[in-house]
Amino acid sequence: xxxxxxxxxxWVTFDPDLKIVDCTVRDGGLCNAHNxxxxxxxxxxxxxxxxxxxxxxxxYKADKKLFPGNENGPWKFSSEEDIRREVGENDTGxxxxxxxxxxxxxxxxxLPKNESVLDLIRxxxxxxxxxxxxxxxKDAKDKGxxxxxxxxxxxxxxxxxxxxxxxxxxxxxxxxxxxxxxxFGSLYYExxxxxxxxYKKTGKTLGIHAHNNQQLAYANTMYAAINGVKMLDTTMMxxxxxxxxxxxxxxVGFLKNPKFNLRPILDFVQNTMHPLSQDxxxxxxxxxxxxxxxxxxxxxAMALRDSDRKDDYVGFYDEITSI
Amino acid sequence: xxxxxxxxxxWVTFDPDLKIVDCTVRDGGLCNAHNxxxxxxxxxxxxxxxxxxxxxxxxYKADKKLFPGNENGPWKFSSEEDIRREVGENDTGxxxxxxxxxxxxxxxxxLPKNESVLDLIRxxxxxxxxxxxxxxxKDAKDKGxxxxxxxxxxxxxxxxxxxxxxxxxxxxxxxxxxxxxxxFGSLYYExxxxxxxxYKKTGKTLGIHAHNNQQLAYANTMYAAINGVKMLDTTMMxxxxxxxxxxxxxxVGFLKNPKFNLRPILDFVQNTMHPLSQDxxxxxxxxxxxxxxxxxxxxxAMALRDSDRKDDYVGFYDEITSI
Lengths: 323, 323
Fold this sequence. Notes:
Radius of gyration of chain A: 19 Å
Number of domains of chain A: 2
Number of strands of chain A: 8
Strand content of chain A: 5-15%
CATH topology of the largest domain in chain A: TIM Barrel
Helix content of chain A: 25-40%
Largest interface: A-B, 40 and 40 residues
Distance between the termini of chain A: 34 Å
Number of helices of chain A: 13
Shape of chain A: globular
Order of helices and strands of chain A: HEHHEHEEHEHEHEHEHHHHH
CATH architecture of the largest domain in chain A: Alpha-Beta Barrel
Strand order of the largest sheet of chain A: 1-2-3-4-5-6-7-8
Largest sheet of chain A: 8 strands, parallel, barrel
Structural class of chain A: alpha/beta
CATH class of the largest domain in chain A: Alpha Beta
Mean pLDDT of chain A: 95
Oligomer: homodimer
């Protein structure tokens, strides 16, 4: 690394500015089209409150006109009504956020902050969508929210294009948090470090959202925290699309800040997540390793894992690496 | 880090001096007292040859007088006769090694090199056993072998004691390879980096043997390789005691040296290791995470995983953290 933090991890683990964002319902919901059993959302919420987690992501703010029918559960849309049914006025220290996908969001679905229990809007975008993403960013900031920009699939973006995009973001004062997102789980620490240095030039507070295709989600999140990233995305037992994410319990066990409390998180993992993991396939497996190594979207691995040849590693490898 | 390699990983992944040591039979054998089915050893061996692996560890050279009876399989003892039955004269590019535990080895069981197909003797020792370990080291070197010293459980050794021990090793010319061993899977990259810098002062070629309690075995092994460590221990599908080790397939997929070949390794993982993993419990799980975070020997977690309350994470956490 060209530039290392002069803070040791011993210091970083106590850093009061480190925030954990639990994305279990939002990213985990990609495993079951957000069709969780009754009580699951409240379980995550209560666990986040008891565990001292800083933010909980309740789901997406997707446009219902684009996703008609009953295929998707309520956290694909995260209506104010549904959120309040679970959390009331959210009279806790836990902040709530929702993700707005660029191109899939109707700005009318995002209420003014003073009418919502949401605190933070996270705008997800590919590099070529940045102008459209900034419309959501500015709208959310005007309405009174904290705003994050999550730049997806950066591992496939050429350096010059990324630097141009980041230069654009530098001047957007409405962005509070800018996220390094390893969508394909293809990055290791040197690459994460390189992105952090580039993203720091925007002057924004940084976040990281990692995927576990190479068993590196926790390692990369820890590395990011030690090197100045403040917003750390996790999910309970790592539940998330494909290989999943940095497990909340692993990161909380590492951080020493007494605001965090591992025991209620372990309780939820034991009694809710572990049983759920017997029914839904998420987390590291060899097909996800292969797409991670190849820097490819995990969709082919997800299809394999959902088929009757889920452990045909060699056949999958041959397909993915065929010319 | 006080001192970083000026080589990027892009360079390191091609480094011809990086060697992979597959420990599946030796460390994986700790999961089943080395009672593998017929054909397993040969399967690992053939896979290592086809995969371009540099060394295969065949097992321990334990003293049969200390382990009487039939509880342990043949790779607890790794007699020359048993090895040759599997590999003949080992007329391949794959080197073979065996582990000699300090205090559990009869020097008479280690033949002169010119009578053995073994190439490397790895001497495992705790810090307080170093004088006894050096007797094995010198005997093995006198007999003509390459020799490694694996210093176990270093995460519990005070710095001044470690530095004294390393100073002793500096002058032992019979040691070819000195191993950083994360016995409890409790270390993360900054700590690995600190140990590497201390160990480098001995002037030895370094190795790393990692455990996966915190999903960091691969991350730490990769970090070590990028920071100058040359001997990288792995096991097929990460099979090893407790949380297991750095998976061979993950590391081979990362390294770009064309001598390595992922496909035969995936074939063995698919057809042998994956079915075996349905019968034997190894690899990351929450109880191993807990002992890793606590820097404790995994034996309590192993006992839990072998009991009828294997997923009682909260009960186990309460036991481990009780005062």
